Please model this.
Amino acid sequence: MPEIVELNVGGVHYTTTLNTLLQDKSTLLHELFAGPEGRDTLAKDSKGRYFLDRDGVLFRYILDFLRDKALQLPEGFRERQRLQREAEHFKLTAMLDCIRGDRDARPPGCITIGYRGSFQFGKDGLADVKFRKLSRILVCGRVAQCREVFGDTLNESRDPDHGGPDRYTSRFFLKHCFIEQAFDNLHDHGYRMAGSCGSGTAGSAAEPKPGVDTEENRWNHYNEFVFIRD
Amino acid sequence: MPEIVELNVGGVHYTTTLNTLLQDKSTLLHELFAGPEGRDTLAKDSKGRYFLDRDGVLFRYILDFLRDKALQLPEGFRERQRLQREAEHFKLTAMLDCIRGDRDARPPGCITIGYRGSFQFGKDGLADVKFRKLSRILVCGRVAQCREVFGDTLNESRDPDHGGPDRYTSRFFLKHCFIEQAFDNLHDHGYRMAGSCGSGTAGSAAEPKPGVDTEENRWNHYNEFVFIRD
Amino acid sequence: MPEIVELNVGGVHYTTTLNTLLQDKSTLLHELFAGPEGRDTLAKDSKGRYFLDRDGVLFRYILDFLRDKALQLPEGFRERQRLQREAEHFKLTAMLDCIRGDRDARPPGCITIGYRGSFQFGKDGLADVKFRKLSRILVCGRVAQCREVFGDTLNESRDPDHGGPDRYTSRFFLKHCFIEQAFDNLHDHGYRMAGSCGSGTAGSAAEPKPGVDTEENRWNHYNEFVFIRD
Amino acid sequence: MPEIVELNVGGVHYTTTLNTLLQDKSTLLHELFAGPEGRDTLAKDSKGRYFLDRDGVLFRYILDFLRDKALQLPEGFRERQRLQREAEHFKLTAMLDCIRGDRDARPPGCITIGYRGSFQFGKDGLADVKFRKLSRILVCGRVAQCREVFGDTLNESRDPDHGGPDRYTSRFFLKHCFIEQAFDNLHDHGYRMAGSCGSGTAGSAAEPKPGVDTEENRWNHYNEFVFIRD
Amino acid sequence: MPEIVELNVGGVHYTTTLNTLLQDKSTLLHELFAGPEGRDTLAKDSKGRYFLDRDGVLFRYILDFLRDKALQLPEGFRERQRLQREAEHFKLTAMLDCIRGDRDARPPGCITIGYRGSFQFGKDGLADVKFRKLSRILVCGRVAQCREVFGDTLNESRDPDHGGPDRYTSRFFLKHCFIEQAFDNLHDHGYRMAGSCGSGTAGSAAEPKPGVDTEENRWNHYNEFVFIRD
Model:
């Protein structure tokens, strides 16, 4: 058996080493290539390459996994389920664990960020807005996912039921008031913004309470941002 | 006839086994490769590969289907209609059923989720928002698709006509008040958010009715999210 | 001349039949491959393949068209203009007609859907919203495209000028009140939602007119959805 | 020197004619292939193909340019900068001019479309909306780009400074009131909608002025659409 | 050792020069190809090509880097992490620096642009809107990223703490009032718009202050745009 092995996987040609193919003892590739009994069951194509009757394109990732012992798929990889089928066929349990673990560690789902905001006005009124003023950033979604994304910055004190992490809650909020930091946290954890909507408040027939800044009151709005992880 | 068959499909080379090609008796491939009569009608290219005058790229999925007897296309696959044409050519009715069944089981369409919400304020007023408060999550769309996505969480009691599943309704709502759960349900069923819009309410010349929290009333808003499945 | 023809199109190798190449008498391929005069002008590469000095990748669709006599491009195909150039080079007028006809039949453009909506409240007030209430779905865009998408469900009675189909109108509305049905119609015709925005209404200093439900009045909103076909 | 030339560009094989390679006298390809002095500096691969130590994939577009003397890239082509590097290497100034000219003629940038709208109500009030009513479509962005997109339909009369085309303005509006026509113009010029947002107006403590339709006044809203060209 | 080297990288064939492979002395490729000791450790495939047991597809960018000594990846390249692994394997520190530097120079993150706007009305009232009127464009996000994008056009005077560039701020605004210029700046720096939302203001029970234009006041709105760089 030569050290360099030429493979024909469903018509796509790969070249690798025997060492790479034998890297994991539990796999079908080890069964096939470890000894003469296995190799004898392998057919060869007309150029003498060992033949595997599987999808040729996806074998690229099977081989990469064997070389590096780690799963590193392209961003936005779209053949995850097809790849899983290939890993199952080759009994590559370490790779299957990675594919599934990747999904378990980063389960798909949705988190909503909402904030009630207005503006701090200076003494010169409207033209002199000092800055954006947020009273609180609300976080809604599945408990476990909110915790994964926001960690220590998550305030759970309003959530009466410190129950199962699989339930949904709309009672979390953040300890800080920077929505951009919240967005960055979500982005770092693989969420993308899927939608956003805003609404103002209604005026009131009643006079505002004493001490409430009328102008600030008028500008109250609620902006809501939906994030999804595929 | 060798066990390993080299194919030239429109210029793209595939390698597979005779077994795979004969896997389904009703197909054109079975007709062509099962016996000498069929094989004699097959031309060969200059390297002796059996030649099929069809699209070379799509044959990848034809072969995958024959190997696994299951349809597993890449996420976001964009040549479904072209693939259907190939499956028709090869008389691969099992695969055609899968392509069509896939579409029937997950028909394209649109579902709208809307909610009327406000905030529960604590006794310290504006700065002390307790949590988001939703009165009800409305679900609009085709009856069958709404049922498929929301199952038992769908409340149909307001929908007077328990008629045909193909009609549209705007009278469904959910039994729970977590929009994130609704979004997750939609996402799990292959819908993606296509748009979102929000609006506040108008103030009223009349005094609010006794017992209504003025502040909560001012923050009433309606947010609407449109989901589409391609 | 063998029945199976091996082609080298700009370095990409295709295999097809003479029959396929001669399928359409008006084409350059027929000129080249029908008789010895044409074939003698054709150069061959070092492996004896007939050589065509054109883009190798796009020839896939030229060949598919000759095989099936129908144009079936991938969804979201992004080389339409490049393909048109190739079809022109090969004098494949039937294919050119398809490419252009495809564009004429489904011209790119934009349609806006807007609706004025509120909610039907039950006797228990806010908490007892019965359902979404739409007064009318407005359709704006080019007359011909609106008709193509909405057909019989389009009400043109408010449009005073039943003039040319190329003019724009903002006076169409639908005969039904299901925006999801409108979205489905648009989606079926190749439009995708590009944007969405909502707005509420202003309160009024005047008392609402007798018989108008105050709460329903407050929740009036206008949601607008822009659809584009590329 | 044979008329048909087989090339190995960084490992990707192309076949073309000597004629195509010599099409432009100022290029490195002409230097290399025009006479024996150039050709002698060219290495050959083991199969006798002329070898060029450059990116093999991008050479497809270099060759297409030489064949057609025109630049036609796929829609959404994402290797423009990489291609420019290749054109520079091959001293293909005509192609470089096209790549740069393409960018100069269609510079990236953003245009915002906003409109203030309401509805024309019939005599039966709310349920009898006649049509969408726009008072004016505002156009904001860089002067030159607004002019390129909207041409004669652009009204510049409110823009006091008819100065440099590189400055930004928010004082343009359109001569017509069809936002769909504006969207179509933008779409035709390669812009896509990147965002959209709407807002209603506030009620007023004062009674509306005589002659103002109260209902129409309440429905006033401002919708804004941001378009970007990459 | 011939000047032209044929490589088999995991089954994908590349052709390059010895010169290109030896371009950087610190790399594994230099170790392997510089002298006979290294070359003797290299296996060859059945066609005599030097064999490297690594991903064949990504080697395209490794080779491009060696040829041009510069990193130029396709726009929207999605295998950056996989490429980094390859660069690490080949000890191509110059390339690793580029990949990392590229990320450090353009760190992912989010910037929010908000503006409070209304319209300048002419003496003929509503129908005679002069132009959009923005009082101030607010910029929120991480200090360093805001500075990178907006440079001299950023006004930091309201930000009391001229502290670390890693903190978030919501107190920056722009020195000009053209949101399109802000969008262009963001777009030029690789940010894309991820969401947008608008809200109007509430009416007030009090009469507007003398000198305030009532109509302009009613149209006040806050539009917010979220930009993300991946």
Chain E touches chain C through four residues (CB under 8 Å). The mean pLDDT of chain E is 87. The two ends of chain E are 44 Å apart (CA to CA). The longest strand of chain E covers residues 125-142.
